[in-house]
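Good morning C.,

I know you're traveling, so I'll keep this short. The sequence:
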Amino acid sequence: MEKQLRMLRKIRRVLLVALIVTLVVLLLVVAWAIRCRNRAVVSGWGDNEGGRPSYTLEEINADVLGDSIVLNSISDSVIGNEKNFVGAREYYEPNTEGTDNIWQANEIIVKDGQEYIVRAYVHNNNLWAENIAENVKIAFSIPMDSSTSIPVHGFISANNTVPSE
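The tokens, ready to paste straight into the viewer:
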């Protein structure tokens, strides 16, 4: 009988330790799930010539570009810095205007179950209508996986712009 009581006490201690370990693991899983609920979508910019100059609206209006055809190089445009041309926002039906129609660039916090629209802003910065970008192409690279951080990249290219990508 004494041997059986010792065995029951030992089993009880093992079960208590197992219960404590299970609770700690459960708390860690819940904390991880809460953290993953708000995922971030991230993007950035670059070009195929190792960096391009930025221009202000004042410089563009003073015809600093001359005959050069340049896309998305204005630092103080209506969207802010045009080099951050990839943006995202929450999608509501129908496509709403006003305060909810705010495009975010670089990093946004997204909500589980919410749909998002990703857009690219393309602007020929040259003042003159005869200086047209030719064969402009745009593409997105969006991973199809789920993560706490998802890079969304946009690509713009044209035959006669500087830089061409």
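Safe travels,
E.
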